[in-house]
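Q: Joint fold for the lines below.
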Amino acid sequence: MTTTNKDLKAVASKEYKYGWTTDVESETPEKGLNEDIVRWISEKKNEPAFLLNWRLKAFSYWKKLVSEDKTPKWANVKFPEIDYQNLYYYSAPKSKKQLDSLDQVDPEILAAYEKLGIPLEEQKHLAGVAVDAIFDSVSITTTFKKELSKHGIIFCSFSEAVQDHPELIKKYLGSVVPYTDNFFAALNAAVFSDGSFCFIPKGIRCPLELTTYFRINAAETGQFERTLIVAEDNSYVSYLEGCSAPMRDENQLHAAVVELVAMENAEIKYSTIQNWYPGDEKGKGGIYNFVTKRGICRGNNSKISWTQVETGSAITWKYPSVMLIGDDSVGEFYSVALTKGYQQADTGTKMIHLGRNTRSKIISKGISAGHGQNTYRGLVRVMPKAYKARNFTQCDSLLIGDKCGAHTAPYVEVRNNTAQLEHEAYTSKVDEEAMFYCNQRGISNEDAQSLIINGFCKEVFQKLPFEFAVEANRLIELNLEGTVG
Amino acid sequence: MTQISCSSNDSYRSRFENLISKSSQGQPNWLKSLREQSMNRFETLGFPTERKGNEEWKYTDIKNIATSDFLVPYETTLPSSAKKRLRQQGFDKQDFHQLVFLDGFYSAELSSEALQIKGCIIGPLSQAWRSHAVSSSLGTLANSEDHAFTALNTAFTRDGAFIHIPANTKIEKPINIIFLTLEWQDKIATHPRTLVNVGKNSSAIIVETHCSTEETKYLSNAVSEIFLEDGSHLDHYRLQIHSKDAYHIGTTQVRLNQTSKFKSVSADLGGKLIRNNLNIDVAGENASCILNGLYITNGTQHVDNHVTIDHSQPYTNSREHFKGILGDKSKTAFQGSIIIRANSQKVDSHQENKNLLLSSDAEANTKPAFWIYADDVKCGHGASSGELDKDALFYLLSRGIPEKEAQSMLIKGFITEIIESVDCHTYKSHLEDLVKDKLSKMCE
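A: Joint structure:
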């Protein structure tokens, strides 16, 4: 344990290691947002009329929100007002024609993913993981497509899905997160550029882990992607997303939407390792990560499980939620959120119990260091028809240093007396006695702290797919290096 | 915040002018200008009726208060119903040092005689407007700037209790402040005000009772300001047994200085729409507070408890425990906020809210929040909601206890710990009776 820790630390410095940029020519429209840009994006992607109409409706709704000054202000985060007219809404690496194989991808981009540790060449890759790689606004490539299509699984970029399976897009797009849902969902619906689409047909257990890797490269660009996962009856899928961005002095906006639909007996496991650029040690720059994620357990016995490790972004603002409609359906949320430097996170979940015997479990671990501000905000709502609904919530916070803050704002709303709900939370600093015990056994302060934090997050890391659990652990360690004493 | 219709605001203004011209004779200038300021502030703020994005009033809609026309009551001769009600309540001048207010006016006849302790004042505010102790502290703790109901109270209050305990004094007899609303043809509004100052190393027990003679419709908007000097100790028991059609907004502001101890036990049994704000400023090192509360609701009652504890000093601690029993279509809310400011190290704080739902139409909302800016602290909170424990019930049934009885045993057991935290024997047995009464009505 100790030696591996040391090795890791020798390899990586404390600084954000994904902060480089890739030099590729990209295609962007003018800065700013207006109806023409929305039309331009839609045309660029050769979208059917229903989608363009949907975008335009979303855009006019968003404009209405802006004119009524309805930018959400309730979250416990502080940032200067965003100038939405001073952003590029689309950026794609220039390519001459449709790509048939990986050989035709810009070698610069391939190199970029190689550097991130995400190999896109199938033969070299770890067995059992299919990757959709998204670079700025567009999907570069999706691996293992053929293999997956043998099972009838559709895993491709959103734009391809719009061309190849418009009927599925039409049916499910906005069915979980309508464009009227909130300010950023409306913005995303108007200008979303790409994302991943995944469809698991009836009775299929997806043989591979599916992964989307998001990379922001261009400057002054907002990234707006949309992920849609549909799991039909009796199917199973495990999906993971990872993210990173170059170091830039200005803040960049990332407003994504993720929609999950689970039908009868289906299970979706969605994991996120979010490592967007968090800004420098003085709090300059970094990504604003304003994301709407929601799953809907539509069928009986379905299950949606969110696992997230949030270490990056200047500001994280997201609440992956589950609507438990089907009887006996299950929602889970496991989260580790780390804020250091001047990072701010306001994150948590919503579990809405509508069906009978629905169950939900929330485990949230917040770690604050430096000047970081970490807020857990969660809602558990039991509607009148949710007989025997059950919820267990635990949200613990760990404080490292006296300049940081840890906040908890859980909402519990019960409208059915047969429901059983429990909520527990605890906030403290790293236990001195535990540190002493480790020291006594010859473990240095830094290693002892890392051990203790590891233990603190264990419950969540255990829920990640194996390879990523290791990565998540490493991320937390690297991020907390130098915070002892 | 949106304003309610202008006509209603205008009616508050005209009633205010009317009140000032009639009753401000003999009142000092500082009070007149404080009232004027508060009235202006209320007009600016308006009632917090906004339903969207209004976090403070998220679970409580006060539209009915904002749109109702409440008249200002005048002082009446003592009705026999008031005496009867007090007798019914079982409050005895023997056991308590009693201060009785009828519709917000002091009743010397029903109140105890003045206490003969040097420097100690237990009496009506209206007789102490000119004292320095009142002018220097009234309105300094209760915030009229942001809270419309506090502003309204400051503008309209006629009287209330003034309790001033000098240093190193122990008041043995519990003080019972009773705010009684009488029967009126029209809806009235009362704005009772309480000011308490417990001197250095002194201690006292205060019971604050809000009740009415008949089941009438009215608004009771009470504000209490409580100052605890260094090393002092106060138990504050608050009992709300208003009429089933009454609206009640109760605000209690407390400031704790060094090593002082404050204990509050609140009980909400009556009323139609109840909102309590309990705000504690833990402003001295080693100060501590225990805040317990219980609410038992049935019919369409609505009870919202809003508790804020602000730890601005190190080595302070707080315990908060609220329990509710909900029947029929009643709705409750508990919103607790604990703030621990930067540098308030070594704070130890815990909050807990538990709800027992006896009916499938009841609704319990809970938000126990923490805002922590210091690292060396211990904070925890818990919340739970559910129905009676089936296993426990089965256990009792298997021992031959009839179902009704078993249920009532479990319900009683659920709230006993709150009632047990009352340290005043006479009040405790009184509270026990009231709770038993209410529960037997609910379980019929």
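Q: Anything notable?
A: The two ends of chain A are 21 Å apart (CA to CA). Residues 1-14, 123-127 of chain A have pLDDT under 50 and may be disordered.
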